């Protein structure tokens, strides 16, 4: 399976659209976005890794995690879940925070909508991310978001290969 990823940035609308097709059933791709033991295997772009502190996967629940660097440094994030439609879509508000989940109001936040669609090749994942301003969007990309997220989505292919068995 090619690791082609469509990654479109629209600074005028303060949004990003990402699309990737995986050679796996919707339920397996869904699980990879909703179960912390699977998320931790691919969400962090190597040499970083994701370490879930707590995940309450339900509407208004929170996923609190740390991005752990190669030297043990940690950057914390939290995603507060909004609407969840089983095997179809998830939305969340993403924010940087401290180890207790207290949001850093000075750091960028973004609203995510992730869609899962069964297609002939497997599962099409679409990610729409909306930022509060063009400045925040630019800051996220300056921090390496596109490269890091692309690596993570590519790493998910390996997780799905193992998970298929």
What descriptors fit this protein?
165 residues, alpha+beta, eight-stranded antiparallel beta sheet
Characterize the largest beta sheet: strand count, sense, and whether it forms a barrel: 8 strands, antiparallel
User: In angstroms, what separates the terminal alpha carbons?
Assistant: 17 Å
Based on DSSP secondary structure assignment, what is the total number of beta strands? 8
- Secondary structure tally, helices: 4
| Rg from alpha-carbon coordinates | 15 Å
Mean pLDDT: 93
Assembly annotation: single chain
Q: Give the percentage of residues in beta strands.
A: 35-45%
Please identify the structural class as seen in this structure.
alpha+beta
SSE string: EEHHEEEEEEHH
Q: Using the alpha-carbon principal axes, give the shape.
A: globular
> Uncertain segments of ≥5 residues (pLDDT<50)?
none
| Portion in helices | 25-40%
Going across the major beta sheet, what is the strand order?
1-2-8-7-6-5-4-3
Strands, helices and their partners?
Blueprint: E1 6-10, E2 15-22, H1 26-34, H2 36-42, E3 49-55, E4 62-68, E5 74-85, E6 89-97, E7 109-119, E8 122-131, H3 134-142, H4 145-163
Antiparallel strand pairs: 1-2, 2-8, 3-4, 4-5, 5-6, 6-7, 7-8
Helix pairs in contact: 1-2
């Amino acid at each position: 399976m090619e690791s082609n990823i469509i990654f479109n940035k629209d600074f005028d609308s303060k949004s990003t659209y990402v699309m990737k097709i995986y050679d796996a059933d919707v339920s397996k791709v869904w699980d990879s976005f909703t179960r912390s033991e699977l998320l931790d295997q691919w969400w962090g772009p190597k040499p970083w890794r994701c370490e879930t502190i707590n995940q309450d996967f339900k509407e208004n629940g929170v996923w609190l995690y740390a991005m752990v660097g190669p030297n043990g440094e940690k950057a914390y994030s939290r995603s507060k879940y909004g609407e969840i439609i089983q095997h179809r879509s998830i939305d969340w508000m993403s924010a940087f925070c401290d180890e207790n989940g207290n949001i850093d109001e000075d750091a960028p936040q973004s609203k995510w909508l992730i869609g899962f669609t069964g297609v002939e090749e497997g599962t099409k994942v679409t990610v729409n991310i909306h930022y509060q301003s063009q400045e925040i969007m630019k800051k996220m990309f300056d921090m390496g978001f596109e490269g890091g997220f692309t690596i993570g989505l590519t790493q998910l292919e390996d997780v799905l290969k193992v998970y298929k068995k």
